[in-house]
């Protein structure tokens, strides 16, 4: 095994070694190897994103005894499912932490046991798409948020993000798939907080939300996997799903200093039952439409 990852700050107990990280993958090329400049966070439940990353992908908790373990990747760079299932045994397993593969250490953690996304359901791996990719599944709604520690605030008006997630067909709350925030209460709507990918519950649409307003939104079919990208260029925002874009004038400096995945925030952290979290990548600069579209298309093919 390589790439031992210690427990994140504030956590204790369980198994502290990383399971399933193979040394045979020296020739591995990550899907983000050509897009590493300006990364502000790289998270995947399913795979290794950068050849430079040698740590665990996720930390999981098994429900049989509450023990935890870091789970790494196999020789192909995919989540080591064998190690995960061996650890979870005959029970279920839940995601405690999704590690930041960017090298910045902005790992996101959900410390509430009842709000953790499930990745193994009684021996059965949670998968999505015809390719059977692992994911974090919201069982009842109320799962999340997964939040990073604070870091030096971003002071740019430019930003980019590409994410893959499953939007459930129910409409009960307004779940956030990715948010960048500086609010200690995780209100993803107000002030300098930006809900990058937000499900607008009154309609079947994906939106970006800043300061209680919608810079951009797109109608989006529910009940399937969505791969989307967002750009703040310094003069406008662009939200793109499946090659369809919506733009809006936007020139605000984004002062975020935390990353949040899943959950509703605003004092009532929620996801929506049936939602799934797979992969989120953030850049603290605009990477351009061509690069964003290429990364989104690669994600879409991987999670198809």
**Topology order in helix (H) and strand (E) letters:** EEEEHEEEEEEEEEEEEEEEEEEH
Q: Please report the number of helical segments.
A: 2
Kindly identify the CATH topology.
Answer: Jelly Rolls
Termini separation comes to 30 Å
Coarse structural class: mainly beta
Radius of gyration: 18 Å
Q: Give the CATH architecture.
A: Sandwich
Spatial shape: globular
**Averaging pLDDT over every residue, what do you get?**
85
Low-confidence stretches are 1-17
What's the total number of strands? Answer: 22
Tally of distinct domains? 1
Helical amount among residues, as a percent range? under 10%
Biggest sheet statistics: 7 strands, mixed
Q: What is the top-level CATH class?
A: Mainly Beta
| Percentage beta strand | 35-45%
Keywords:
mainly beta, Jelly Rolls, seven-stranded antiparallel β-sheet, 36% strand, 304 residues, 22 strands, disordered N terminus, seven-stranded mixed β-sheet
Structural description of this entry:
This protein has 304 residues and is mainly beta. Helices cover 7% and strands 36% of the residues. The protein has helices at 81-88, 289-302, and strands at residues 18-19, 39-44, 58-62, 68-71, 93-98, 108-109, 118-121, 124-125, 127-128, 133-134, 136-137, 146-147, 158-167, 176-181, 194-200, 205-210, 213-219, 224-233, 236-241, 244-249, 258-261, 276-283. A hairpin with a 4-residue loop joins β15 (194-200) and β16 (205-210). It is globular and about 50 Å long.
